[in-house]
Amino acid sequence: MNLLRLAIAGLILVGIACAVWLPGHDGVLGSYATSLQGRTRGQRINAHKAAQALDGVVIEPGAAVSFNRIVGSWTPERGYVLAPVSYDGELVVDWGGGVCQTSSTLYNAALLAGLDILERHRHTWAPKYVPPGQDAAVAQTTIDLRLRNPYPWPISIHTRTTDDSIGFEIVGRQSGPIALVSGIITANTPPLEIIKNDPNLPPHRRYLITRGRPGLRVAVYRTFATGPRTGQHLLVSQDTYPVMNRVIAVGD
To answer: What percent of the chain has pLDDT over 70?
Structure first.
């Protein structure tokens, strides 16, 4: 459990470190980046394409924005490709696989920037590109990420991408990060190892079907470091991720 907490703290600090103040310009309220290393080519294409759709979006004071409405449909006609995607807890190939990494990256930037979170959903199992409890799943027409600008001046979203990463800066009239984010693992259930006999495998040959993931219960908090809500320490979310057992096929 301690290792998981350290990992969460490390990723949070990465997001915080990205926030800088540019003299003479609007400040970066908060920023966050995630790594694309280990992702498939299709997932990278889709994550980058969704990120570019968000670049330059302006949110007026008190206004709300929808990730799905801005990004639009994830269809081949719009340049999206087939890639692995988590659907109802199972990994399948579908159009737009990888877009959830973009929404999760934006979500973390929004938390650091002090934006209001109107809608956010967890994945069935915690993805590896953000700390547990800090993911934001999206699905066309059904599951969205919606954010609101709580400030009395406009803010804007700026995309920062490389071949191996995607990131966002949220810019306004203050320097940030506005808030600090912390996650606490309150339960950690290790996966079981399930052995399945497979007559199609040579005798005693083993084949890994599912690596498995621990079941987690995590609470995420946001502490405001500057601005009108300075000092407020608020619960952002409480999520429970079920155990994914480790499954191994063995030849008869």
So the answer is: 88
User: Residue 171: which region, alpha, beta or left (left: phi > 0; alpha: psi -120 to 50)?
Assistant: beta
Please say whether the beta carbons of 145 and 64 come within 8 A: no
For residue 39, the tally of other CB atoms under 10 A from its CB is 21
Distances in whole angstroms, Cα of residue 70 to Cα of each of 26, 55, 183: 23, 10, 29
Q: What's the one-letter identity of residue 216? A: L
User: What pLDDT, on the 0 to 100 scale, is given for residue 60?
Assistant: 97
Q: Give backbone dihedrals phi and psi of 96, rounded to 5 degrees, phi first.
A: 90, 10
Q: What are the domain boundaries of the chain? A: 2-177
d(CA 128, CA 104): 11
Element (H, E) at 109: helix 99-113
Angle (CA) 39-94-103 rounded to 5° is 60
Non-local (6+) Cβ contacts of 122 within 8 A are 133, 135, 136, 137, 237, 239, 241
Per-residue confidence band for 141, with pLDDT thresholds at 50, 70 and 90: confident
Determine contact, residues 181/143, Cβ cutoff 8 Å: no
On whether the CB atoms of residues 99 and 44 are closer than 8 A, the answer is no
pTM: 0.85
